């Protein structure tokens, strides 16, 4: 729920929409509440749960009469079922969006690399959601995760994506060296870091923020072909 | 109310906020309704008024319990008084934000250049709001506006800011050639065009999207120092 990742997510929704003028773009309501409790502390260290504030955000979105919810944060998907149940509307799962991207762009790939917060890895959000598929997951060693991935996420959240870029590149290279076929940037701050340094590694990775944006645009396009344009929604970041 | 300008505006709010972690960023609700009627058609050609849909957006924002409204679109300020009255809360005016920027960065400048939609120019949004100050305004000749400024705005709305960049540069150079001291990018699509080509002319201009973002961050920071963090809001784009 980093605000820079949310801004990036909305930009990617716009970029992924085929439109010749403003009126052909998708109506979106974004509820960005960055003062929500830290997700990683809640999962790993019994910190305050972010769920009550996430459900507040869902309430605000429901009052805005949206038709679909997107959460541009991998770790927050730990509470996916609760959000889905409370909203009573479609909530597109970021791991499903990544799976669609894998099938479209890398149909034969089986060895996936995961870069994300320690809590996303510990909660096995990807492994559980993709359990029925025949994927093998590789993650960086703890020291490398701390010095490169966790540090890079912090830097992006502090508004320094360029400084984060080189760190993420190191972590991606390590995974490729270990035989990973497709590295997944399973924290929405990480694509921002690679983009900031115009990294040649970015096209080899799955950008989970862009994958979710594509899934949202595809959902809205399907609805639009049926009836009036829907209100798609990004929550919360 | 171009969606790419809205995404850019939110990014600039994040960039202009001094924060060491997510929780120090400003809560923001963005209501982006790009299917709102065209503002220029309404002002120049008796087209449908966008005001009813703008007021719908104000309603959604009020339901989200925001404390302040920002409109990242110059032309939409034609309906500023109506939005202000309907919301009953602070609505920061983009021209006031530009004026603050002029006073801070170019205190001696008197000859300003205006690049914007034909409707922003025809409605004299800047000239009226700044009437009590001793500024002289210069605009491009009609043929140049049509071929460079209007075309560039269309290109950004179509997701092609790089193609727009060279056109905006030509229009800015023409104004400088005519003796303008500070060109004002009085349409929030225009800074995106200059940024996309990494233009050396950008720092010489006022980016109205960034000026409004700074005003919003300054407003939220003042509120925060008094009490709990407020909900600042961007509408509607």
| Biggest sheet strand line-up of chain A | 1-8-2-3
Low-confidence regions of chain A: none
Mean pLDDT of chain A: 92
Q: Classify the secondary structure makeup of chain A into a structural class.
A: alpha/beta
Number of helices of chain A: 11
Q: How many runs of DSSP E, i.e. beta strands of chain A?
A: 8
Order of helices and strands of chain A: HEHHEHEHEHHEHHEHEHE
Distance between the termini of chain A: 3 Å
The helical percent of chain A reads 40-55%
* Oligomer designation: homodimer
The biggest sheet of chain A, with number of strands, parallel, antiparallel or mixed sense and barrel status, is: 4 strands, parallel
Radius of gyration of chain A: 17 Å
Strand content of chain A: 5-15%
The largest chain-to-chain contact, stated as pair and per-chain residue counts, equals: A-B, 41 and 41 residues
Short description:
2 copies of one chain form a homodimer. With 237 residues, chain A is an alpha/beta fold.
Structural key phrases:
homodimer, 237 residues, alpha/beta, 4-stranded parallel beta sheet, 11 helices, 52% helix, globular
């Amino acid at each position: 729920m980093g605000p820079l990742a949310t801004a990036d997510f909305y930009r990617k929704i716009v970029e992924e929409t085929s439109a010749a003028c403003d009126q052909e773009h998708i109506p979106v309501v974004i509820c960005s509440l960055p003062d929500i409790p830290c997700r990683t502390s809640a999962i790993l260290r019994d910190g305050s749960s972010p769920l009550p504030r996430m459900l507040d955000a869902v309430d605000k979105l429901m009052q805005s009469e949206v038709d679909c919810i997107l959460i541009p944060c991998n770790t927050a998907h730990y509470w996916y079922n609760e959000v889905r149940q409370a909203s009573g509307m479609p909530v597109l799962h970021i791991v499903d969006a990544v799976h669609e991207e894998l099938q479209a762009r890398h149909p034969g790939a089986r060895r996936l690399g995961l870069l994300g917060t320690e809590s996303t890895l510990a909660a096995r959000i990807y492994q559980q959601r993709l359990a029925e598929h025949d994927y093998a997951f590789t993650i960086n060693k703890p020291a490398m995760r701390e010095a490169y991935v966790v540090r890079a996420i912090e830097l992006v959240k502090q508004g320094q994506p360029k400084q984060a870029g080189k760190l993420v590149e190191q972590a991606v290279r390590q995974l490729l060296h270990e035989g990973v076929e497709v590295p997944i940037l399973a924290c929405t701050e990480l694509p921002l870091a690679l983009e900031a340094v115009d990294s040649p590694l970015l096209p080899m990775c799955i950008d989970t923020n862009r994958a979710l944006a594509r899934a949202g645009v595809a959902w809205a396009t399907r609805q639009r072909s049926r009836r009036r344009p829907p209100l798609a929604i990004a929550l919360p970041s």
